[in-house]
Amino acid sequence: MDMEDNGPGAVLYGPEAERLRNWAAAEGIPVVAEFGDETGDDGSSPVRRGLLGALSVVRRRAADVVVVRDVEVVGSTVAAQEAFRAELARAGGDLAELDPPSAAAPVEPRAFARAYELVRREWERAEISDRLQDGRRRRRETDPTWWPGGRAPLGYELDAGRIVESAREMAVVTRIKELRRTGSTLGEIAAALTAERYTTKEGRTTWYREQVRRVLVRHGEPTDDEPDVTSEVE
Question: Residue 47 CB: number of other CB atoms within 10 A?
Fold first, then answer.
């Protein structure tokens, strides 16, 4: 079974997720993966991106049921909802709803055909993206210094296609961690870095909360504005 979540392998917290899991357990359906919308999903897809991931799992015969609260979470239109249901059935899976509608709304054939084609295209794009990400992850596991391209994150630099630590930039990362672990909020850290004239990756001396947040996320530090305060400072 696949369930809504924040991505494959993730665990969603909250009453909605717990309700889905309890229902699956009561029905004797084992959970093999959990999916949901990615952060920043702009809603342009006819169905929610997390469900496209669930469709991929069904296509691989790793699951045969996708569980959702109700069909409305699948897509914004009835045509999109029915198109996803049809593609799921084509892959050999079923859609289970905790709160099914009392009556199914009619679907205009041409709208269904358009939605079905969009669902297939979006799934193909999502599948290609997932495969690329999996390939990059496996490459990094075998060679931690390999970098897929683009700019290196703060604290690192590229050397002949390999990512290595930058002593100058790591000093900034260390300072961010120090401030965070002594209780500073993201805004306070940004203000401190600006006042202390630390430079960003682009060489600027003005810092913003989002830049600080990205550094903390990359290094596994808390990012809400109620930070974990510890006595140990790196």
Answer: 24
Instruction: Tell me the C-alpha distance between 196 and 193, whole Å.
Output: 5
- Residue boundaries of the structural domains of the chain: 2-140, 144-234
Is 65 in a helix, a strand, or coil?
strand
Strands (E), the chain: 2-4, 33-35, 65-68, 94-97, 156-159, 162-165
Q: How far apart are CA 8 and CA 34, in angstroms?
A: 5
Dihedral sign (CA 85, 30, 131, 136): positive
User: Which fold is adopted by the domain 2-140?
Assistant: Rossmann fold (3.40.50)
Over residues 45-98, the pLDDT tens digits come to 555 667 777 888 888 888 888 888 777 777 667 777 788 888 888 888 888 888
Number of H helices and number of E strands within the chain? 7, 6
The predicted model scores a pTM of: 0.43
Q: CB pairs under 8 A, 24+ apart, for 18-25?
A: 19/69, 19/98, 20/67, 20/68, 20/69, 20/98, 23/67, 23/98, 24/67
